[in-house]
Design goal:
Layout: E1 4-11, E2 14-21, E3 29-34, H1 44-55, E4 58-64, H2 66-69, H3 78-91, E5 99-104, H4 106-118, E6 122-126, E7 150-155, E8 169-174, H5 185-198
Parallel strand pairs: 3-4, 3-5, 5-6, 6-7, 7-8
Antiparallel strand pairs: 1-2, 2-4
Helix pairs in contact: 1-5, 3-4
């Protein structure tokens, strides 16, 4: 792994924190990842994907939302999350490599909702929460981006449900995993990087 750059970026919703990990030998793409609602960027699945992607020649940016930087656990409203996230991605600047956005749970939803506006080439969604537990009628399937290659990695024991694949949306099931995707995080990371590689976004 190359150098790691950690800093705060001002957004309309307060400062966000980014941790940028550069791969050795130049980047094949930039992967920007967000965290879950009550968690942080050091969640096991995010850590595993980060490590595997950087090893695969991807520049990985981990974004901590302003509400977490401020020490709050309860997430900001969706519109504020999207606004802060979009500001961070734009302030990172444009690179001459494809932009992939993603994250886990709430972070996956944010990435899905903003991918088209940010000009992302792809979306990596870990534990996409299809609906609140026990409320399958409140589906969030409409948040999944249309026309953008998207990989959803969800456990088959996830109480938040699992979306169906269609069109550019590919769903991979992680056997025995719940919403935290802690079961076989290396396997999850390997699937994510294989998908990146298949699209030419990793080496």
């Amino acid at each position: 792994m190359g150098p790691v750059d950690e800093r705060e970026i001002e957004t309309p919703r307060g400062p966000a924190r980014v941790r940028i990990s550069a791969p050795e030998g130049g980047a094949a793409s930039r992967l920007v990842l967000g965290h879950g609602a009550g968690g942080g960027v050091d969640a096991p699945d995010l850590r595993a994907v980060h490590d595997a992607a950087v090893a695969g020649g991807v520049e990985v940016v981990l974004v901590t939302q302003p509400y977490r930087v401020a020490g709050r656990r309860a997430p900001a409203p969706a519109g504020q999350l999207d606004e802060a996230w979009s500001a961070v991605v734009r302030l990172l600047g444009v690179r001459d490599v494809p932009l992939i956005v993603g994250g886990r749970s709430s972070g996956a939803r944010v990435a899905c909702r903003t991918a088209a506006d940010l000009g992302a080439s792809g979306v990596l969604a870990l534990a996409f929460p299809l609906h609140p537990p026990g409320k399958p009628d409140r589906s969030r399937a409409g948040e999944l981006p249309a026309g953008i290659p998207t990989l959803v990695l969800n456990g088959d024991r996830d109480a938040f449900g699992m979306p169906a694949g269609s069109g550019e949306i590919e769903v991979m099931v992680r056997p025995g995993a719940t919403h935290d995707l802690r079961k076989d995080v290396k396997g999850t990371a390997d699937l994510a990087v294989a998908w990146l590689r298949r699209h030419g976004w990793a080496r």
